[in-house]
Structure formats: structure tokens, C-alpha cells
Amino acid sequence: MSKNAALSYRFMEESDEGGQSGWSLGQAQRILYDFLLDIVNYWPPEDVLIEFRNLFIHHAESTNQQAIPALQVILLANHEDDFRSTIKRCCYILVNNWEMARRYGAIQDLVDLFSDPMLQRNTHSPTLRRLRTWILGFVASPDFEGMRLFAARLSEERTTNPPGIWASRYTSYLLVPQYINEGNPIEQRQAAKTLSRRLKDQFKLNLALYTAHSQSGLPHRPTTQNPTTLGDSVLRLIKAIVAKRGEYTYHHLARLFLEQTKDVSYASFKAVLPKYVLFTVSGNPMAQRIQNYLTPRITALYPESNRDQLDPSLLLRTCNRLIDYLMTEDRQSPSPLFSLVLSQGNALTLAIVLLKVVLISRGSQIYVEVCIADLIRYYQQFPTSECQWVIHFLEVFRVAFAIYTENVEYNLVRVQSRLDPSENPALDPLDDLNSFRIFTRKLDNPRMDRRSD
Q1: Residue 146 is inside which H or E element, if any?
Q2: Where are the beta strands (DSSP E) in 20-90?
Q3: Which sequence spans correspond to the domains of the chain?
Q4: Euclidean distance between CA atoms 109 and 255, whole angstroms
Q5: Phi and psi (nearest 5°) for 157?
Q6: What is the pLDDT of residues 100-119, one digit of tens each?
Q7: Nearest 5°: phi and psi at 236?
Q8: Which residues pair with 309 in a beta bridge?
Q9: CB 287 within 8 A of CB 278
Q10: Which of 231, 90, 93, 227 is CA-nearest to residue 157?
């Protein structure tokens, strides 16, 4: 089917219905959206890019006789916010469709269009001057930076070169604010969610493959590269996370805690919450400092509900506030507790505490990931050399969450021991990690509380 034939039906439907002077802003936007939806499904990406450049960058011509008049309606309305939401949705209509078709190079080419020197040229046309000014404003906005990040990560997937910027390793988290923001176009939200999920799945798969292959005694292959920056120490980290502490795993402890607090008052729940999240790290000297910081703040939460029975809404809100105290209280900079814990080398302690919060409040996982994105954006302003302790935490965090909140189960099996279990029947795996091997298996029906232990 030719380009013009594919669009002819829509031209027939929309022509002579009042002309451009009769279009509302919404009608003008819909003409552009429908036009791009049509061509992205029928045209080669290179032709779509030419059309987009002619329409938005050069503003000179279009194969759709209504596209430029529709854009004029939006420009003459003289509301930059409306224009920005329009250009953003137009971009993500193309991005989302190309991402699903795995035409990743076209997405990067779309981003590159906004570097066209034409945007810097002077013009005597007030309308064209407004268009170029607004386009440049869009390029300088967080919205465009999000699209640039999206394209860069997809381009990286096609190469074997490591990313040049440390934060790009954590794109799966940086995309979360995009797909939970209901103010973003549905196309942008879908594209961000799809890529974020794929990146997490790829990390999870690579971690499981690396773990299995590293213990097989076979030479490393390109398909089993370590997906973390932790080196071989990631194996000991996995063992430490998976190892049972006493009688219960983290999943079992979470279920037990929820069962014991399901009928208590909100005040009673707040009183025991710090003890629960710190139970398995209580031997760490930092645990007492964390408890001293958290307890008065948690106690003061929502005092009007103290006599009420705990319900899912209160649980979610309380866990989200707890996450604020642990990570970022203003959604812009690290909390005092976050800085204190990590500066003392307690990345695993913090990751486990956050994990335990999520295991009792599943809805809080998205909130944790949004806070991770906030912290990454904050630390991006500093040289990589000054961010090593934060990067270490991010690596520990995503290993812990890949183990406990995804559909791959990790288990420890004793293969040999340097210690004699008969002398200590209650031997803790953490005392003798080298005698254990990690075994993984994929679960067909994953649930965050899947283990019965």
C-alpha cells in the first residue's frame, strides 16, 4: 500500500469540516496524532522521520494537507504547555511503535532531529519564531531528557560497549517516574514501562546465568558476563541474602508479621514496625542508630488514626513514609539516614530493610523505585569517583530485589563444609558460605510471597 493510499481515507473523513479556522485545539491535536499513527504503521522509519522533520523542524511541507494547518492552530493558540504536550505525545507515538517493532535506531534518529541547525536560525515569521523557541524549550526540558535516555538505553542494547555514564546502568529505575505519571501521554507511559520491564528481566536472567555458570567450573562465556559491578563478590552477596537467619526467610517473616498485626490498632502496628524491619540486621551496630531515627518519626505518623484498625491504605501510606525516611524525604536529595547508613558501609543493611518493607507492602515497590530514580538524578551532578558508595548500594539493592521480588527462586544447598555440623547443629549458613552453592529455578506463577518455606 502506498503512503498516500494508506492515508486517503482519513483525508476524506476530515476535509471540509469547517476548515482550519473551525478546528478547536483538541481537534488540531487529534489530526496530528492520527496522521502519525497512520504513517508509523505503513511507512519505513526513514520516511516517517523526513515527514516529522518537514512538519515540526522545518515547518515547510507535509504529505497530509491538514497537518501544517493543524499545527498552526496549536501555535496560534499561544499556549506553550499545550504545544509541549502535543510534541511530546507525537514523539512517543513514534517511539512506542518503533520500540515494539524493535526499530531502535529510528528512535535515536528521532532524538537527533532536534539537533537540526535550522532551529537556531533567525526568522521574520512570528509563528515560525514561536515554533523554534518552543521546540528549543522542549529540548531543554526533562521530558526530552527522558526521551534521550530512552533512546540511549535502546542504542546501548545493540552494542557491547559499556555505558559512558554510570547512571545509565539504572535506566530501569529512571523510567519508573515516566510510566507512573498520569500526566504523560499513554504512548510515553507504555514505552517506558515496557523498556523498564525488559531491562529488569534482562538483569534477572543475566544474574541467574552468571550465578549458575560461575559455580560450574567452566570458562566464562560472553553470554554469562557478570551483570553487576561487584565482581565475583556478587556470589557471596547472593549467598548472604538468600541464607536463612534462624528459622525464617524474609518472605516467611513478612507473612508472619502481617498475620500478627492484621487485627491490631494502628498505634500498636507502628510500635512494632521498626522491630520487624530491623529484626534480621539487629546484630549490626548501625541497627540501633536506625531504630533511634525511625521510631519517633513512625510513632508520630497519622496520629488521628491511632485507635483505628490497620487497613491496606494505612499500611501503604506508612510504608511509603518509612521509605522516605530511609531514602529521600524531599524527593530531591538523600535523607540524613540514607547518607549516614551508606557512609558507614551498610549498603546491604539498607537494601534488606527496604526489601522487608516491600515484602509487607507490595504497592510500595514502585514507590521505592521512584525514590531510587530521585537519588540517581541527585547524584548525577557529582563526578563518578564521588559516587562509588552510592553505586555500590544500587548494585546491592537490585541484586536483593532481583532475588526476592522476581520470578526466579534462589536457594542455597550445602555441598561441603569446613565446619562439622555435628558440633553445631544450628550452624548458620553465613558462618560457612563457601560450603554452599546457589541453585536457581524459574517460577511459572511468580508472587512476591511465593515461598512457603
Answers
A1: helix 142-157
A2: none
A3: 3-161, 202-442
A4: 49
A5: -60, -25
A6: 888 888 999 999 999 999 89
A7: -65, -35
A8: 265
A9: yes
A10: 227
For CA atoms 94, 154, 204, 341, the dihedral sign is negative
HSE-up of 397 (CA within 13 Å, CB side)? 24
Residues 6+ apart with CB under 8 A from 133: none
User: Of 144, 147, 169, 141, which is closest to residue 156 (Cα–Cα)?
Assistant: 169
**Which residue, 166, 206, 171, is CA-closest to 192?**
171
Which residues in the chain show pLDDT less than 70?
1-21, 155-164, 215-224, 244-248, 405-453
Q: pLDDT tens digits, residue range 374-392?
A: 999 999 888 888 889 999 9
Q: How far apart are the C-alpha atoms of 374 and 145, rounded to whole Å? A: 15
Instruction: Say how far apart CA 313 and CA 318 lie, in whole Å.
Output: 8
> Left (φ > 0), alpha (ψ -120 to 50) or beta: where does 417 sit?
beta
Cβ neighbour number for residue 373 with a 10 Å cutoff:
21
Strand partners, 442: 408
Q: Which residue has the cell 530491623?
A: 278
The count of other CB atoms within 10 Å of the CB of residue 270 is 25
Give helix 347-360 / helix 388-404 axis angle, nearest 10°: 40
pTM: 0.75
Quick one: CA dihedral 223, 229, 235, 240, positive or negative? Answer: negative
Give the length of the chain. 453
* Half-sphere exposure for 292 (CA within 13 Å, toward CB): 8
Q: Is 331 left (phi over 0), alpha (psi -120 to 50) or beta?
A: left
Angle at 28 between CA 47 and CA 9, to 5 degrees: 60
Contact 279, 252 (CB under 8 A): no
Residue 217: exposure state from Cβ atoms within 10 A (0-12, 13-18, ≥19): exposed
Q: Grid coordinates in use for 53?
A: 522533520
